[in-house]
């Protein structure tokens, strides 16, 4: 996405430089300036995660499941049992372990569509040394500063009035920016929370409606009709205020449910009932909850949402959850982290989930191993490739880490 045309140098040589013709159009108005996020991430997080039980549980389920996946590191020829990169992921900083770091990373990606990881330099030669620490930064505080070629030339992290600028023009950026696909933004990702903003509002409004019903003894209060001694239906201001305060104190709320009302002369109570449209609020709430779960990729059955019969049983829903949501997310984030971190050393490594250690996929992995093992027309190398394994380990090549003996 480097936004320039291919050019031939004056001395006749052709530089190895790739570019796109759309660069001047995209970056003409934004070169060197901060590209602001189009949605308020903080407000969406408060409403959809901190203030909504369905959104909270969906995000927690995905993050905890993805962070708990066993990870393997391998290159083209071998799989490593120990490696400096694995040690860095296992203990990224003094305050977090692997699970805490990855859970925060996945959560930022789901809630804001963007995740930022900071690398703390580990030595004098930062271009060839792995970082000493890794930190997940809050997405709502980070801004992308695009350069003239469309690529980020810096990342700006703001806390209140104080700002820190990360220079991204070096060989390896100190910030790893992972983002979801956004069809209308060149620098920021699209969050599932943005897609379900309306469903979150509906679900929260329905919860507030139910709370109001409980505060009013789960039914409309009805109407008090005043008939004065002279036949006039108008109360004095002092009478109105005293009556309202008495009802508020003695007859409303859950603790006063069912308490008989004592009326003085001239007062008549007329109860009111629900209309059929009022009773549809619970179904509307369940429909909104289902939309939130589906947007995040969590089968509604796993969240206890009634009325969903998409999957035959809980086990099938759990398998679909891992196969369609957790594994794609963990695989994409693992690939982004390994590509970014190996840029410091130049080694080509692949960090990915170990599918053979995922309990939810044990049945289908066993069937795949059986089918591959019985395929006599395949060579051993082809079988290993189909199972996601590297080529056989070569004891003569130790490399940076210790390879696992696959025999």
From TrEMBL:
Pfam families: Phage_portal. This is Phage portal protein. It comes from Antarcticimicrobium sediminis. The lineage of its organism: Bacteria, Pseudomonadati, Pseudomonadota, Alphaproteobacteria, Rhodobacterales.
